[in-house]
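Tokens in:
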């Protein structure tokens, strides 16, 4: 079956919710009461913190850690440490989430759109436009030589996927 139910529509609100589809963490939210539900990987592109720990204000999802903000299509609209005049590079945007539909009182996502992240792809966010953004976790050239392999192992075993801020 290509579509899988992730939540009752009535339970999807401006409070982000974490759900798992085939073991992959996703965040589900409704940016505003009259807007459709949106779904993204539950992972901030900055330091991989679960976006489900964030908050929504004015239709914008804000990461709980350093405050990057994302609109309902996943475009990054604010990186606070870059200042009000700082450019926001495309690599700060959320990767496209899975296709979403709502019917029968539920939110569904297309299962074939849900993929485990490739660990080393998470570690390549080197855009100089983010130099003032408390470097992404992704700066491979800042890591000791064995560290990339270690980080890849940690990511692939699910440690980061299950990590939540408390
Ligand atoms: S981890 Fe999300 S803004 Fe830094």
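Residues out:
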């Amino acid at each position: 079956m290509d579509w899988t139910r992730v939540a009752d529509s009535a339970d999807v609100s401006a409070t982000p919710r974490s759900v798992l589809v085939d073991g992959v963490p996703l965040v589900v939210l409704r940016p505003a009461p009259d807007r459709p539900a949106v779904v993204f990987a539950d992972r901030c592109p900055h330091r991989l913190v679960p976006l489900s720990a964030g908050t929504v204000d004015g239709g914008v999802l804000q990461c709980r850690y350093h405050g990057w903000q994302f609109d309902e299509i996943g475009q990054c609209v604010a990186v606070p440490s870059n200042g009000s005049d700082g450019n926001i590079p495309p690599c700060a945007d959320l990767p496209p989430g899975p296709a979403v539909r709502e019917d029968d009182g539920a939110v569904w996502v297309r299962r074939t759109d849900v993929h485990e992240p490739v660990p080393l792809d998470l570690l390549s966010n080197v855009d100089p436009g983010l130099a003032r953004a408390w470097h992404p976790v992704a700066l491979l050239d800042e890591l000791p030589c064995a560290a990339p392999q270690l980080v890849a192992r940690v990511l692939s075993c699910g440690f980061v996927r299950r990590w939540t801020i408390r």
